[in-house]
Design a protein that fits this description.
Strands 1-2-3-4-5-7-8-9 form an 8-stranded parallel barrel, surrounded by 6 helices. It is built from 13 helices and 9 strands. It is α/β, with parallel strands linked by helices and about 350 residues long. It is about 40% helix and about 15% strand. It has a single domain, classed as Aldolase class I (TIM Barrel, Alpha-Beta Barrel). The chain is globular and about 55 Å long.
């Protein structure tokens, strides 16, 4: 990424816009539901059989660290501004988030439209996060309760589906309890013709916290377990972390797979290479759900990083070419909000 461009959230989303969200919450809370009802939905989940979805659900589980900054994801102005930087561009397919952040997007979309601008949520894929009850660092967190969206509320707000996960810790019974919650949610979503995005995440307890511990054998087993959850897999997509040897993982299911982005490393190059390799692993691999690694790409522009992933997924651009495009995209349309919200 360019050494000259430094993304500044205050330039893209001044504090006055951030404060306006609270004002709408206090004075016009009904705006949120009205925006949800007015949103134009896609006729089909995908346009070309692939998806790139921005995941914005880490802070709601008490995960606020990115890189060496322990609270940066807990700063909602910073976090929301970066999410909006990506989602206001029409290239990315959509976003996955809990109710509070989805509602913030609806409010900002309302403010843009009030200023004469177009909706940036029309024709996007909106996925509601259904969990976040397994708060990081709390005893029993592996028993990941469903504490956010329900299938009923996802349908009422006209979202496109719900996301859930179970963390696989063989020695913790909370794994099986969470799998049961997920199975019930898949069934409830299916009965409403809504999509379920299921993430099996193998982890281990290291240095006082749970960390991803993915391998081909474990992922193959978990893909099979996840694919069978609920009364039907008709509307189920899987979210599975990329590992070397992904060809074997891709062969474990006919369900569509979205690759997991992983933690922020300040460099999107390795992520692009992993995704490019994963997309060649088999027909079941259909895109990526990106998060911290793209929202916080070092000092660079989150949108430029997201567009690089989008080019790799939707247009088959190789990693080197995608990286080369980043500098050209940095800083583009920094007035996506301020040109409409005065």
């Amino acid at each position: 990424m360019s050494q000259s461009f430094r993304f500044n959230v205050n330039e893209f989303m001044p504090r006055r816009i951030f404060d306006a969200i609270t004002e709408i919450r206090v004075t016009q809370p009904g705006t949120i539901h009205a925006q949800a009802l007015a949103r134009r939905k896609r006729a089909n989940l995908t346009r070309d059989g692939k998806l790139v979805i921005l995941a914005c659900d880490h802070p709601q589980r008490g995960v606020t660290q990115s890189g060496n900054a322990p609270l940066v994801m807990g700063n909602r102005h910073e976090y929301l501004g970066r999410a909006l930087r990506i989602i206001t561009d029409p290239s990315l397919d959509g976003v996955m988030a809990p109710p509070d952040l989805i509602e913030e997007l609806f409010i900002v979309d309302y403010l843009v439209q009030q200023g004469g601008g177009p909706s940036f949520l029309d024709d996007r894929v909106l996925v509601g996060c259904m969990q976040r009850g397994g708060i990081a660092g709390v005893v029993g967190e592996i028993n990941d309760r469903f504490s956010a969206y329900t299938s009923e509320s996802i349908a009422a707000e006209r979202l496109d589906g719900g996301k859930m996960m179970f963390r696989f810790i063989p020695e913790d019974e909370g794994t099986l309890l969470t799998i049961d919650y997920c199975a019930r949610a898949v069934t409830e979503l299916h009965r409403r013709n809504l999509f379920a995005f299921v993430e099996p995440l193998p982890q281990e307890f290291v240095d006082g916290k749970y960390k991803v511990n993915a391998s081909v054998p474990v992922l193959v087993k978990l893909a099979n377990v996840s694919a069978a959850l609920g009364e039907s897999s008709q509307h189920t997509w899987l979210k599975i972390p990329y590992v070397a040897g992904y060809e074997t993982v891709a062969l474990s299911t006919t369900l569509p797979i979205l690759m997991l982005g992983g933690e922020s490393a300040g460099d999107v190059g390795p992520t692009l290479k992993n995704f490019a390799a994963g997309l060649q692993a088999g027909a079941s691999v259909r895109g990526a759900m990106i998060g911290r690694n793209i929202l916080f790409p070092g000092q660079g522009d989150p949108l430029a990083a997201a567009l690089a992933v989008n080019a790799a997924v939707h247009y088959g651009v190789n990693p080197d070419e995608a990286l080369a495009q980043i500098e050209n995209n940095e800083g583009r349309a920094m007035d996506a909000l301020t040109r409409w919200i005065k």
